[in-house]
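Minutes, project check-in
Item: structure for the 205-residue chain
Input as provided by the requester:
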Amino acid sequence: MRTFIALSVTASVFATGCAQLPPVPIPDPSPQVQQVVVLDIDGTLTPHNLSMFEARPDAEEVVKAYVDKGYKIVYVTTRIPGLQSGLAQWLKEHNFPSDPVHIAQTTEERERPAAFKATILRGYTDKGWQLAYAYGDSSTDFLAYMSAGIPKERIFALKRQGSEDCEGGGFATCVEDWTAHIDYVKTKVPDLRYAQSINPSGAAR
């Protein structure tokens, strides 16, 4: 029965739209918001990279904690065109910020996810953003983040549902689930709003 339901849902997604979502521009940083938290979607916000309709418990609370502390949320994904329809709505329904979502545009980009994601993230640093933290579930995510200059100690791996361990690569911690990570974000991550209150010019530190 579960297989039938999953196939029915997948079929409905393909039926409602298989178009490639367009690329989105990289925004300019503002004096108030200059630091980015990078998120993969499938397998990171969802329980598994093949599970695209369910959100991990407490993922939205961790993301909200970052937003409340003054960070910009940026998504990078190589999801195939047939499963892109409704992604923005899914983010909204699960209380995640809905943009910007950078999606691979070509087969080559989807086949080389680390290169695609690193290129997007370098575009952010070129515009003056600081890449503060990053989360993913695959070795290509970790490679992309390190290639873009994010320190290993600020890269976190999410363990996929049903796996015994996180995928290999450069990261600080293998996170069992988002629930276990809430305390880290709330107590260890700097609150940029406080920094702004003592440095009103917004100059990067």
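Outcome recorded: The chain has eight helices and six strands.
No further action items on this chain.
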